[in-house]
């Protein structure tokens, strides 16, 4: 709250369980960038309200949507960190405070993993061992900031970090999709 300003909100909101619905543009950009590799069943293990799963489904992907918490979409009560490895494609925006664990759980055994994280996610000495164990093959940099709160004040730079032995090693800049790019 700003002193003396009625009904003001803080710039940074903390949400329960680290839940922030993924803006559609981020998922569409991923499909445009690596859609040819999203060629099988996709598991979205932190589906929340289904924002990402609905976009993937709308664009012809078969999606298994699960989440630990029931937010009205997918199969609730599924703890991905206990559920285990997937052997399929995993696409998710994991709770940031559990991202390390999601990487360590998803990457081994999966054909492809794509996680939406901060662009500077690996800028932490505490993640050196994780990076050495599971180096991503691609960084797909979003060239716009995502508005996680709907307040019109996006502040975080994000990238899709992608793992998959069959992928070329690359860093790419993704433009923001506009209109119906799949029409």
Following the backbone from N to C, one meets helices and strands in this order, namely HEHEEHEHEHEEE
Number of helices: 5
Average pLDDT, rounded to a whole number, is 88
- Note the beta-strand portion: 15-25%
User: Termini, distance in Å?
Assistant: 44 Å
Q: What would CATH call the class?
A: Alpha Beta
Tell me, what's the shape?
A: globular
Total domains: 1
Question: What is the name of the CATH architecture?
Answer: 3-Layer(aba) Sandwich
* Strand arrangement across the biggest beta sheet: 3-2-1-4-5-7-6-8
Q: State the share of residues found in helices, binned by percent.
A: 10-25%
Structural class category: alpha/beta
Taking the sheet with the most strands, its summary is: 8 strands, mixed
| Total strands | 8
- Integer-rounded radius of gyration: 16 Å
CATH superfamily: Vaccinia Virus protein VP39
Provide the CATH topology.
Rossmann fold
Q: Uncertain spans, ≥5 residues at pLDDT below 50?
A: 1-13
Task: Based on the model shown, name its key terms.
183 residues; 20% helix; Rossmann fold; 5 helices; alpha/beta; disordered N terminus
Question: Could you characterize what this model shows?
Answer:
It is a single chain. The chain has helices at 24-34, 51-58, 80-83, 99-106, 128-133, and strands at residues 42-44, 63-67, 75-76, 89-92, 112-118, 138-142, 158-163, 170-174. The termini are far apart. It is globular. Helix 1 packs across helix 2. The relative contact order is 0.18. It has an eight-stranded mixed sheet, with helices on both faces. It is an alpha/beta fold and 183 residues long. The protein contains five helices and eight strands. Helix 2 links the parallel strand 1 (42-44) and strand 2. It has a single domain (21-174), classed as 3-Layer(aba) Sandwich (Rossmann fold), CATH 3.40.50. Residues 1-13 have low confidence and may be disordered.
